[in-house]
Amino acid sequence: MTTQNHKNTIAEFEEIYISFYPRLKRFAQEYVISEADAENIVQDVFLTLWERGAFVSSHINLTSYLFTNIKNRCIDFLRHRIVMQNAANKMQEEYELALQIKLQSLQAFDEQIFSNADMETVVVNAIQSLPEKCRQIFVMNKIEGKKQKTIAEELNLSIHTVESQMAIAYRKLKEILKEHLPLLFFLLI
């Protein structure tokens, strides 16, 4: 392409851009609502037009080509937004459900649970019911405050074994203390 042809191509593109941009933007904004989103869609269509050099061909109906591309980009944009909104709504629903469960748990929380001297016995008995190695690892972690890596080193075990034993302890304590759910939360913190 000669320099003159290149200048002509740029001039032709600028003329098309200036002529169509405002109408295409209004059209896009009618559907995507946001001015910034409409501008981005129109810019993308013009970028594609420039890269393909489609405007140079006299075989296309430029108006039809541009508006069809804008329409298709708006459809893609709106479909994407709907998917994103649905995902956000689902996350919001799950969050609200978790809040409701926490609220119900707090409302059911029996303040007497911590003033009852028998509760210490319940906790001690629950921990004592754990298998020996499991109990030892649980006490070292939750009562003595040692990190799982330290426990693994001290007991000459793999970190995976310590993690597995803690998971077993949690599962068994959850079952044993299901009547005393708030106690379980304090044990596991």
Question: What report would you give on this structure?
Answer:
- The protein has 189 residues and is mainly α.
- The chain folds into two domains: 3-105, Rna Polymerase Sigma Factor, Chain: A, CATH 1.10.1740; 111-188, Arc Repressor Mutant, subunit A.
- The chain has eight helices and no strands.
- The chain is elongated.
- The mean pLDDT is 85.
Between the first and last Cα atoms, what is the distance in angstroms? 72 Å
**Structural class computed from helices and strand pairing:** mainly alpha
Instruction: Compute the average pLDDT.
Output: 85
Beta-sheet strand percentage? under 5%
SSE sequence, one letter per element: HHHHHHHH
Rg (C-alpha, Å) = 33 Å
Count of spatially separate domains = 2
Q: How large is the count of helical segments?
A: 8
Overall 3D shape: elongated
Stretches where pLDDT falls below 50 for ≥5 residues? none
Q: Main sheet?
A: none
- In percent, how helical is the residue content? over 70%
CATH class of the largest domain: Mainly Alpha
* CATH topology value of the largest domain: Rna Polymerase Sigma Factor, Chain: A
What CATH architecture of the largest domain would you give? Orthogonal Bundle
**How many strands?**
0
Oligomer: single chain
Keywords:
Arc Repressor Mutant, subunit A, Rna Polymerase Sigma Factor, Chain: A, single chain, 189 residues, 80% helix, 0% strand, mainly alpha, 2 domains
